[in-house]
């Protein structure tokens, strides 16, 4: 049985080999552009993240190509206006790079714009040919990556989400059990710190639900359900953190704490059953389909 990292390395190597070979076969120049696209897509946590990056990269490439055409067409003979516009574009890209949703797209658009302007030698025909080549290479990288990673040892966004969800629910269940027992102040502080570390994991779940969910049928068709579970996990984490903070207070109402922990345990049981039922459906679907055939 191969390790996950080994499988990923094989898929990346195969994708690069296919993309570069196709580039040479088609007679395209600059085969490293398709390779860079594949490397950028593979440096993501899930397949959904990669598809999101691919769409942003394509959008940025087209926007940068359009900006380059405008600059070369109108300011090729005006050095001051050309440099001023390019610097303003660079400033916009730097400012927007901190935007979580559009930052990558704007950065890529500036890179492509500067690249086309520099390599196109301010010539309309050369710039257009360079833009077409860039788009071809980018599309080729996206297509090859999608096919290889979608067909060979596919690692779906859905599977990653369920694994992360189970990890979080198990962690919350463990912390609820620990908080119901008598413990020292140091142990309580440790639990509080561990609960704080759960919050970024829940934020990661929310990010996954905002990604393209093609192939993740359970997530795509029950999106509101999983968003509700994510919100519930966050609320339970905050409640457990509040209980942990209250334990440092000697005047804590023990009856209320036990009641709250019992309710939290019940909520966690319901959430785990919901996740488990959907995982069972996901596993059962292929076998059912094969039985019908």
From TrEMBL:
Predominant location category = membrane
Is the keyword Transmembrane in the record?
yes
Instruction: State what protein this is by name.
Output: FUSC family protein
Q: Which InterPro entries match?
A: PHBA_efflux_AaeB/fusaric-R (IPR006726)
Q: Record's Gene Ontology CC terms?
A: plasma membrane
- Identify the domain of life: Bacteria
**What topology does it adopt in the membrane?**
Multi-pass membrane protein
The transmembrane segments are 12-28, 58-75, 80-98, 104-122, 134-153
The listed locations are: Cell membrane
Which keywords does this Swiss-Prot/TrEMBL entry list?
Answer: Cell membrane, Membrane, Transmembrane, Transmembrane helix, Transport
Q: GO molecular function terms here?
A: transmembrane transporter activity
């Amino acid at each position: 049985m191969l390790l996950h990292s080994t499988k990923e390395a094989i898929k990346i190597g195969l994708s690069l080999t296919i993309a570069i070979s196709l580039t040479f076969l088609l007679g395209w120049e600059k085969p490293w552009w398709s390779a860079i696209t594949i490397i950028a897509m593979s440096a993501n946590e899930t397949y959904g993240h990669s598809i999101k990056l691919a769409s942003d990269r394509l959008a940025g490439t087209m926007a940068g190509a359009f900006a380059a055409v405008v600059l070369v067409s109108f300011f090729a003979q005006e050095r001051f206006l050309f440099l001023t516009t390019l610097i303003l574009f660079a400033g916009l890209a730097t400012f927007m790079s901190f935007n979580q949703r559009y930052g990558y797209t704007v950065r890529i658009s500036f890179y492509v714009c500067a690249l086309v302007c520099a390599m196109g030698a301010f010539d309309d025909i050369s710039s257009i040919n360079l833009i077409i080549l860039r788009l071809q290479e980018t599309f080729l990288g996206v297509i090859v990556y999608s096919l290889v990673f979608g067909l060979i040892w596919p690692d779906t966004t859905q599977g990653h989400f369920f694994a992360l969800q189970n990890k979080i629910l198990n962690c919350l269940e463990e912390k609820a059990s620990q908080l119901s027992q008598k413990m020292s102040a140091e142990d309580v502080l440790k639990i509080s710190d561990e609960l704080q570390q759960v919050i970024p994991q829940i934020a990661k779940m929310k990010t996954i639900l905002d990604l393209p969910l093609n192939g993740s049928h359970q997530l795509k068709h029950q999106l509101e359900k999983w968003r509700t579970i994510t919100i519930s996990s966050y609320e339970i984490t905050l409640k457990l953190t509040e209980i942990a903070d209250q334990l440092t207070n000697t005047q804590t109402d023990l009856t209320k704490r036990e009641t709250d922990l019992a309710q939290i345990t019940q909520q966690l049981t319901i959430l785990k059953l919901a996740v488990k039922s959907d995982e069972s459906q996901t596993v059962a679907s292929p076998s059912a389909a094969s039985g019908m055939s």
